[in-house]
Amino acid sequence: FYRWEMQATESSAQSLWYGDYGIIASMNYTIEAYDKLLDDEQAGLSESDVAKLENYKAEAHMTRAMAYWDMVTKYCVAYEDEDQAKEVFGLPLQTVYAPTSDVSKYPGRSSLYDTYKLIESDLLEALNITDEGQPNTNYFSKDSAKALLARLYLNMRDWAKASKNAQDVILSQRYP
């Protein structure tokens, strides 16, 4: 296990899988709840309240992206190119909160390409986080979203986008 050489039936591997999907389910619920609240004209939200909710929603997208990122790097083959990624299995993608014990309603595995596109979409939403970033913080920031985008694009072999996002963080000079 310490070398990440494990079988699907190993309980530790199952715990990682179920833990990430638990996070994904929570973030799906959170994103939907924020959307409902933001769309509710009766809620009487101030501009400040709306800004906070939009920020929290962006953080939820970041959290979901990180959970999928954790899984795609552990349970899927490496992304070689777009054609290959469309032909190989990715992860079962769940973007709505729909808890059920009916296995027949579980999503099937998507393509690796679709998995990476969902992670990218969530990270692009995470760029709406209001905090730019600072060293040694415990909170998500635009910089953390850009850093993970750089890693995503690096894995996708999109060198230009990987470089741009990494340079945005490096050249900000916020990190010694």
Question: How would you describe this structure to a colleague?
Answer:
The chain has 176 residues and is mainly α. 60% of the residues lie in helices and 4% in strands. It has six helices and two strands. The chain has helices spanning 11-39, 47-75, 82-87, 112-126, 142-155, 159-170, and strands at 89-92, 109-111. Strands 1-2 form a two-stranded antiparallel sheet. α1 packs antiparallel against α2 (47-75). The mean pLDDT is 90.
Largest sheet report:
2 strands, antiparallel
Question: H/E element string?
Answer: HHHEEHHH
**Portion of residues within helices:** 55-70%
SS summary, helix count: 6
What's the oligomerization state?
A: single chain
What is the arithmetic mean of pLDDT?
90
Question: How much of the residues is beta strand, in percent?
Answer: under 5%
Rg (C-alpha, Å): 18 Å
Helix/sheet category: mainly alpha
Strand order of the largest sheet: 1-2
Count the E strands.
Answer: 2
N-end to C-end Cα span: 35 Å
Based on Cα principal axes, name the global outline: globular
- Low-pLDDT segments, ≥5 res: none
What descriptors fit this protein?
single chain; 176 residues; mainly alpha; two-stranded antiparallel sheet; 6 helices; 2 strands; globular
Summarize this entry quickly:
The chain is 60% helix and 4% strand.
